[in-house]
Design a protein that fits this description.
3 domains; 397 residues; mainly alpha; single chain; three-stranded antiparallel β-sheet; 49% helix; 16 helices; hpI Integrase, Chain A; DNA polymerase, domain 1
């Protein structure tokens, strides 16, 4: 039922990485009817229950019957009938919740899993708390006032932009006449009072070593193991400058111990779907599909020791499978910095520290640092190179 290749004349049911059902059509039908090398029909069903599977199989049978009868117009009409239905001209009597549900059904196959698990599900929770918000200007103002009272301006602006995208989608389909949200969004000021606090502020090499030692020894922990369990993660991040999503998404199969290379190619992002401490594994990185990072002896020893201690059952296991980033940032990390009397910086500053040290204290070229860190030369020049690098004597060349 889930074959990747479609046999001649046979439609196959497939489950996408977004956990929805689609039907793959035969190649000859895709080429002759749709003028495409491959064609799949979205069923707009989530693959999360026996009921939706049964419905998907019924739709598969219907599509196969149309293929067997060579009823191509019937196939096109049936595909159109599967799309979420919207009713024109009654927008004033409908709620934003109704429209949002239709919007999600229509768009979910084109969204990244991480976007669905984080932004979409959180926006859905907000809508569910205000199920009677209308699609009028008054409804938009009501939602705006509710969010400004219950969350931050930054979050309000972030999710109103999503609802605005929903209304824009509906406007193009003539479901609604106007979109009042862009004007509301413009009134929200999210400028921080102290922008300097967001500047790149790396740790010194001495501070870095103190932090690694404190986590490794556990001398500041209240409960045995509460700090030492994060020691490998701390040292790994300081030694690679990897983003948290890249460290958490790293699998043992991505590490080539023989050639001393780490292949960053997947990320694990935090999800707001109610599963505390869990995340979503996704292909690719923030700014690129993959990145090769060379291992030095210290980093290789750290990973070999961790592998020996964990004894992973599969190369598909995550290297930092026991890492709860939310708890780490809010408790252990903050406490260690406070006890060491080191000014607080976000954990992301561990990445800033690595890039700063590479740019200012090694002989590596900027393009080499750019390649191994997944950033641009321009960013390195603007943010990481020492500003106290004035030229006193011009060299003779």
């Amino acid at each position: 039922m889930y074959a990747h290749k479609t046999r001649q004349g046979q439609a196959n049911l497939n489950r996408t990485d977004k956990n929805t059902y689609v039907v793959n059509l035969p190649v000859n039908v895709a080429k002759s009817i749709y003028k495409k090398s491959r064609k799949r029909i979205a069923l707009y069903l989530n693959a999360d229950s026996k009921e939706t599977m049964a419905a998907a199989l019924c739709r598969l049978d219907k599509i196969q019957a149309l293929l067997d009868a060579e009823d191509w117009q019937g196939l096109l009409d049936y595909e159109e009938s599967l799309k979420p239905k919207v009713v024109q001209g009654i927008f004033a009597r409908q709620s934003l919740k109704w429209l949002w549900d239709e919007y999600v059904k229509a768009k979910q196959d084109s969204w990244e899993v991480s976007y669905i698990e984080n932004d979409v599900k959180q926006a859905t929770r907000i809508i569910n708390k205000c199920p009677k918000i209308s699609l009028t200007d008054d409804g938009a103002n009501e939602l705006y006032n509710y969010m400004m009272e219950t969350t931050t301006p930054q979050q309000t602006k972030r999710y109103l932009k999503q609802f605005s995208a929903c209304i824009t989608w509906a406007k193009r389909r003539r479901i609604v006449k106007d979109n009042p949200y862009p004007d509301l969004i413009k009134t929200i000021s999210t400028r921080r009072k102290n922008e300097d606090e967001r500047d790149i502020n790396p740790f010194t090499k001495e501070e870095r070593d103190l932090i690694i030692e404190a986590f490794r020894s556990g001398r500041l922990e209240r409960y045995k193991g509460s700090h030492t369990k994060y020691a490998d993660y701390i040292e790994f991040t300081f030694l690679t400058g990897a983003r948290s999503s890249e460290s958490l998404g790293l699998k043992w199969g991505h590490i080539d111990f023989e050639n001393n290379k780490i292949n960053f190619q997947e990320g694990r992002v935090l999800a707001t779907n109610g599963s505390y401490g869990k995340g979503v594994q996704k292909k690719g990185l923030k700014t690129q599909k993959k990145r090769v990072f060379p291992m030095n002896p210290r980093l290789k020893k750290l990973l070999l020791n961790r592998k020996a201690n964990l004894c992973p059952g599969s190369l598909e296991d995550n290297v930092f499978v026991d890492m709860n980033h939310s708890s780490f940032r809010g408790n252990q990390y903050t406490k260690v910095l406070k006890e060491l009397e080191i000014d607080y910086r976000r954990p992301y500053c561990m990445r800033h520290t690595f890039i700063t040290l590479m740019a200012n204290e090694t002989d590596l070229k900027l393009h080499q640092i750019s390649q191994i860190c997944g950033t641009s030369i321009d960013v390195i020049e603007r943010h990481y190179l020492s500003k106290a690098s004035c030229i006193e004597n011009l060299p003779d060349v």
